[in-house]
Amino acid sequence: MAVAVITGASSGIGEATAVRLSREPGYELVLVARRGERLRALAESLLCPATWLALDLTEAEAPRRVREHLEAEHGGRLELLVNNAGAAWRARFGEGGAANVKRHMDLNFDAVVRLTEELLPLLHASAPSAIVNVASTAGRVARAGTGSYSASKFALIGWSDALHLEERPHGVHVGMVLPGFVATEGFPATELREWALTRWIVSKPEKVAEAIYEVGPGGKPERYVPRPYALAAVARILLPGLTRRVLGGGPAGALTTGTKATPGGADGAAGSG
What we know:
By secondary structure, this protein is of the alpha/beta class. The protein has helices at residues 12-22, 36-45, 62-73, 93-125, 147-167, 190-194, 205-215, 230-238, 240-248; strands at 2-7, 27-33, 50-54, 80-83, 129-134, 172-179, 222-225. Helix 1 crosses helix 7 (205-215), helix 3 packs parallel to helix 4 and helix 4 (93-125) runs parallel beside helix 5 (147-167).
């Protein structure tokens, strides 16, 4: 059996990923998020064996608790780690300041790094294995009002690229999925889905889950969802001046959406729990 840990598994992309992996033969899943009742219901509905662990990944003891759960319930095996949990609290820097940057870094980057560090020996022992870090197109192209979120995802992307080179000799593949706008509980994208002009750019969690499968077990280096979002990342490198003008112009103002983490501090990002 292959054991997979999915963080942010109680809704959105994490939930869709659990459902997608459960359709593959030979998987055992470990579902991690804050909402235990949601995790229990999901575990009982899946087509494969699944355990769950309710915790806040920003807590100091969270990585150790995940490792101990794997050792106690799954023999210490780990073939796939999906770092999906995250959140966003929309604010311009002049409003949210350094505190908002830190809040994003704590969950979207630092928690991922700490959990990966704790579980890396298990991934080594179970190699060939894989890590999938769910980043964001916002980690390649930043927009006004999302700088703190983008900063955390830019950091995650840079670290993931280096980690891939370091862990490849140990049989651990490291890949990334970079979603654009995806309609989830934390990012309902209501504004974009209500406009016929922008509805097409909003993807579904199931499509991101498929990309996670392609990048993890499938071994691909990275995937944008939807795929055309890769053009924005290319334009940012080749045409930085034009990209800034477009993002600062009137039409780009339509390409924004609120989050359920704004302003109250609840979970809000791709599949956060």
